[in-house]
Amino acid sequence: MTEKKTKHHHGDLRNALIQAGIAILAEDGIDKLTLRRCAARAGVSHAAPAHHFKGVEGLRGAIAEEGFVIFRGYMQRELDKVGDDPHRRLKAISLGYLLFALENPALFELIFGISAMLYLNEVQPESPGASYDMLRQCCAPFVAEGAESGPVEAQVWSLIHGFATLFLSEQFGPVDRGNPDLDAFNKVITLLDSLPLADRA
Amino acid sequence: MTEKKTKHHHGDLRNALIQAGIAILAEDGIDKLTLRRCAARAGVSHAAPAHHFKGVEGLRGAIAEEGFVIFRGYMQRELDKVGDDPHRRLKAISLGYLLFALENPALFELIFGISAMLYLNEVQPESPGASYDMLRQCCAPFVAEGAESGPVEAQVWSLIHGFATLFLSEQFGPVDRGNPDLDAFNKVITLLDSLPLADRA
DNA sequence: TGTGTTAACTTTACAGTGTCAAGTTTGGAC
DNA sequence: GTCCAAACTTGACACTGTAAAGTTAACACA
């Protein structure tokens, strides 16, 4: 308790609301994420969040920003397990991407929901950039000197994002999110084996 | 007006509500799709839809069902433009997939929203199956005799679904949905060129 | 130490949402 | 012609976001 910021009233309400939101997402799902519930969980009145976020979109944006940090953690953890082989790194970051989606489905939906990009672009061009940079680095070995990197990145991102989305929504069959069968993932990801390494000077 | 089904009161309220919902999606976006707005647009009281759909999820499911019909139309239209070459057919169905997303973004989001699969599975195991069958047929030439078809289908579907989702949410840059630049699509889809044709008996 | 100022927060209020429980109307079977 | 059940309306309630007005408390300044 000594670490209490002893700010004006609450201390650190903005962060408390974000953490409340993340907990609500994990426990109750995305459509239970409301301003009033976050406020109640943080122990303040229902109108308090308005002083820290611009409406409910602002709150969602702030939660998404925090979500990207967690997201990057998943990818980094898998990257740390493998060496320098470019194809293995590609698979590792993809696995991290998938595991994040499986273990944080509501947060994944919040972050990558189609309408989500509206507030993301406004609120924070920072964090998604950092996530994208991780992907970019993993794709770099497959981009020829002087060539544009966009197509390879789009191929890799499309494949893993599409698979994660469809797998999570059980389009490929029932999923035990606690102990997922990664057989389908391993087979799909072989498509990236056909990506040729660029010979670099 | 003579074609009025002269059912009990309204005539064909269920269908009118679905059409109202599709119009609202196109005009106002997905978060304006509410029971009360659909009811108002169809000219009935706010509680009337309850007699045709099980809550708002039921309405969304019914609209999704209709959306899949439109979706299949887009894919079929592109397939009709090409011949028998398997790789070209794969690109054609993918283009139809993308064009549907671009021209019906809210409907696409409704259909493929991550939480969407809940009511889809309950309400109608029919239409999505029909859509999936189209994909399956396009993938068949790449599946060896006796081999399982799942992996190839998952690769193709993941790639195009991921690309459509990310492209639509402008992750690859600004998009003019009326006149989209399909350059990125054409480059990403080349990844499918590496799919080997199965030599069939 | 006392006094303002202002940001943080609360209270109150209102429109919109889904959903339930009653009513009312009407098409059609008998 | 009567009656019934389905279709639809009306009214109510809890919940949502948001705005306006009121209250509290931290801090600067005298």
From TrEMBL, chains A, B:
UniProt cross-references to Pfam families, sorted A to Z: TetR_C_33, TetR_N
DNA-binding region(s), chain positions: 34-53
Coiled-coil ranges (or none): none
PROSITE patterns the UniProt entry points to: HTH_TETR_2 (PS50977)
Name of protein: HTH tetR-type domain-containing protein
Keywords: DNA-binding, Transcription, Transcription regulation
Domain HTH tetR-type: 11-71
GO MF term list: DNA-binding transcription factor activity; transcription cis-regulatory region binding
